[in-house]
Amino acid sequence: MPTKHLASALLFTAALSACTPDNGTQNTASGSGDKTGSVKLLNVSYDVARDLYKDFNPLFTAEYKKQHNGADIAVQQSHGGSSKQALAVANGLKADVVTMNQGSDIELLVKKGLVKADWQKAFPNNAVPFTSTTVFLVRKGNPKQIKDWNDLTQDNLKIVIANPKVTGNGRYTFLGAYGYGLKANNNDDAKTREYVKKMLSNVEVFENGGRAATTTFVQRNIGDVLITFENEANLSAKQFGNGEFEIVYPKYSVRMDSPVAVVDKVADERGTRQAATEYLNYLWSKPAQELGAKLYLRPADKDVLAAHASELPPMETFNPNDIFGTWDEIMSKYFSDGGVYDQLTVKGK
After folding, report:
1. What are the entry keywords (predicted)?
2. Largest alpha-carbon pair distance within the chain?
């Protein structure tokens, strides 16, 4: 297994650190109703979603007060790698809602009896308010001339990604590369494995989350290319990168869905179901969809997406479930101990 660099303790930038709500990525404050009518919710989410919810929460609380005669509501956040966050909820973190980047993370909570099996029917678009895709962030001038997935196997290239074993961001990177390999090699799995193994051999750092990978690439100046979500790459290049980075859009990439769900058992115990449902429903409102688009997330609202076509250009993407099966099948075959990812990861680096 390639050596894992420790996650940087450095802040990405002062501006970026301001995007971290509640003074950290883990906040265990509870969500509950009280006798005064005020409500507290805890949203447990994946790490690079902090920029969205930093701005979304004030929008929602203002609307909630308007709809409920000035009643108080507070939303607190917990951010980290998507699968680690789901495991934390499964192990007792009292989330009222979860907003993840991989359906299997919510399915884990279904298996634990925390979320209802029909959670995808509770909200529009199979409970996915936004999507994204995997792109490449390179340094100014693109000195390594990265144009597509095939360029990631060139000699002496240093890649930074989130660790596919523990993060959704990393898994989408792996599946994006594998899906590209299957298409480029006419579904020849042996040739695809050769390609993916070579690409993984160029990974310099496997970070513990998407935001940690960004920090390593941008702040610590490690690597020639960062593979990450489109919204994270745009925020890095256009808001925090001072013109030092460029985004490369591959011709064919994986689609990332960001599913959401009420944690039914917690919400029912605390009496927060109505507020939790309203909170998630508001993600499909025009203000929220516009906010997501401005932060380079692809909104479910087609009109909003079309209005932001210059920032979110049309791309050919694939749904990983269409190629690799259900998330349970994907996790078992590709990311379990001894699975395809482990088989293709170069040892002793």
Report:
1. Periplasm, Signal, Transport
2. 64
Rounded Cα distance between 32 and 30, Å, is: 6
- Of the candidates 284, 301, 336, which is a domain's last residue? 284
| Residue at token pair 């591959």 | 250
User: What does the DSSP 8-state code read for residue 119?
Assistant: G
Weakly modelled stretches of the chain, pLDDT under 50: 1-36, 348-349
- The amino acid present at 206, given as its one-letter code, is F
Could you give the number of structural domains in the chain?
2
Determine the structural domain holding residue 90 and report its residue range: 39-128+259-284
What's the CATH number where 139 sits?
Answer: 3.40.190.10
Residues 230, 336: one domain?
A: yes
pLDDT computed for residue 237 by the predictor = 84
Which of 235-270 are b and which e, b meaning 16 or more Cβ less than 10 Å from the residue's Cβ? bbbeebbeeebbbbebebbbbbbbbbbbbbebbeeb
Q: Specify the residue for token string 């290239």.
A: 157
Q: Is residue 66 part of a domain?
A: yes
What per-residue confidence (pLDDT) applies to 322? 96
pTM of the model: 0.83
Q: Encode pLDDT of 84-108 as tens digits.
A: 899 999 999 999 999 998 898 999 9
Residues 199 and 335 in one domain: yes
Contacts of 298 (CB under 8 A, 6+ apart): 130, 131, 132, 133, 230, 292, 305, 312
Contact 324/330 with Cβ under 8 angstroms? Answer: yes
pLDDT attached to residue 347? 57
The beta strands (E) that lie in the chain are given as 39-46, 73-80, 97-99, 130-139, 159-162, 203-207, 225-229, 245-248, 252-257, 260-262, 298-299, 316-318
Q: Which of 266, 304, 263 is nearest to 283 (CA)?
A: 304
> What b/e readout covers 150-167, taking b as 16+ CB neighbours within 10 angstroms?
ebbbeeebebbbbbbbbb
Same domain for 246 and 326, yes or no, is: yes
C-alpha dist (Å) from residue 245 to 9, 136, 140, 302, 320: 22, 10, 5, 29, 28
Among positive and negative, which fits the CA dihedral 176, 214, 256, 79?
A: positive
The first and second tokens of residue 92, run together, are 């007792």
